[in-house]
Amino acid sequence: MDTTIKIPWAKPDIGKEEFDEIKNSFENNWFTLGPKVKLFEKQMANYCNAPYSAAVSNGTVALDIALKTIGISPGDEIIVPAMTYFSTASSVSYQNAVPVFVDIDKESYNLDHSKIVQSITNKTKAIMFIDYGGNASDQSNIFEIAKKYNLTVVQDGAQSLGGTYHGKPMGANAEISTMSFHLAKNLTCIEGGMVFTHNKNFFKQIMMRRNQGEVNNRKYEHLALGTNARMTDLQAGIGLAQFKKLPKFLKERKRVAKIYDELFKESKLDIKVPKTKHSDTTNAYFFYPILLNGRNNIAQALRSKYGIDTRIAYPMPVYDQHLYKSGQAKCRHTACPVAEEVTKKILNLPIFPSMDEKSIKTVVNAIKSEIK
Ligand SMILES: Cc1ncc(COP(=O)(O)O)c(C=O)c1O
Predict the structure, then answer these.
(1) By Cβ atoms counted within 10 A, which residue in 39, 207, 278, 310 is the most buried?
(2) Does 177 contact ligand 1 (Cβ within 6 A)?
(3) How far apart are CA 346 and CA 81, in angstroms?
(4) Does residue 185 line the site of ligand 1, with CB under 6 A?
């Protein structure tokens, strides 16, 4: 633990309830792919309105399984947002397929649907979208394009949990979607992930692929290329305890975001705060991203002078990451002026359920002092 940090950027709420679930697994003597995994899958599927769900070990492996399940082959192209977490794109490269980076929207920082069509070729097989920081993508436009060009949509819903889009829960909106329960996420299993699908045949494959391609009830018979992506009952138990607290977590995140919004409005600083694009859409506030000039120096000063930790998510468009820039993995991209600009200015401020008003004011005042 870094003792110089007074206000962390994220602070998971893990305590007695989670510990009791783990203790219960020891008492029941069931540690992996057991009753807690099944119950966690059921609760998450209900919450996200998906008929099928499979718990896995993390969000990255969930993406790998999703892409194998929809049949991505070497050389296929997949449209991905130019600004996202690395594994949205690297999961494509793992299939020896080609991520095609498309610019992001000015308001939500998600895939800009109006720029997708110009990137489609006869090799394009799928469109992947995320909901950056819990803020909804323009899903209906993306689904419309996919339908017209006969493409599969994959939702990388790692950051989506708890948000709503046109009144519907976010995270399992595509035919196949994935989620992450990493430590900092709105709901954590410490590490963990899930694949959701609305397609029964996909579900059978996902269940095989998460367990070495093995057929259910036929031990050591392997029908497909799978891996060890099994979630333990210890992780699922933590997830179950977290699930009970999720409404409170989301309410508190909203509260923190609202206070930031008001303080920044009053401050009249030249700072852009997050905006939801549609009126019947709610932001899950996994991140509270602001755009500001002089971002790098300010982030550094916040940490060294005030003990405030932030996240620069993400510091460059993914095509500028070494893997792609060096040619180790293939990619394509069109001009992405918005992603270029946003990655220079974006800073994700501390946000977590137990963050009090005093800490929020400390963050805003520190930014004020550093800007002047
Ligand atoms: C958009 C996105 N995709 C994928 C992942 C990968 O999830 P995990 O860290 O559980 O492997 C993350 C995690 O931060 C993410 O934010």
Answers:
(1) 310
(2) no
(3) 16
(4) no
* The total number of structural domains that make up the chain: 2
260 shares its domain with 364: yes
Task: Answer whether 8 contacts ligand 1 (Cβ < 6 A).
Answer: no
Give the residue, out of 87, 109, 186, with the most ligand 1 atoms within 8 A of its beta carbon, to mutate for a pocket test: 87
Helix axes 200-209, 59-69, angle to 10 degrees: 130
52-56 and 193-197 strand pairing:
antiparallel
Q: What distance in Å separates the CA atoms of residue 70 and residue 65, rounded to the nearest whole number?
A: 9
For residue 182 and ligand 1, the question of a CB distance below 6 A is answered with: yes
Handedness of CA 166, 191, 300, 325 (dihedral sign): negative
- Model pLDDT for residues 188-212, shown as the tens digit of each residue: 999 999 999 999 999 999 999 999 9
| Cut 0.90: pTM above it | yes
**C-alpha 170 to ligand 1 mean position (Å):** 16
pLDDT for residue 301 is more than 80:
yes
190 lies in the same domain as 303:
no
Atom of ligand 1 minimally distant from the CA of 181: 10
Asked if the bond preceding 285 is cis, omega within 30° of 0, the reply is no
Is residue 219 domain-shared with residue 271, that is, in the same domain? no
